[in-house]
Specification:
mainly alpha; 0% strand; elongated
Length: 53
């Protein structure tokens, strides 16, 4: 049930949602580790967008 709710809470059509759908995590503990690289990428993209605005 937790996994279902977590997947439903992901931003639709995001790269991370695609990865979670393709490479199913074995445990819920794997998700934060996997998400960290996507979070860092989005933060860099946002900083670049602000800098170039």
């Amino acid at each position: 049930m937790k996994k279902y709710l977590l997947e439903r809470g992901l931003r639709p059509r995001s790269d991370f949602a695609k990865v979670v759908g393709i490479e199913k995590p074995r445990t819920l503990d794997e998700l934060p580790h996997k998400a960290q690289s996507y979070i860092q990428y989005e933060e860099v993209e946002l900083a670049d967008a602000i800098r170039h605005a």
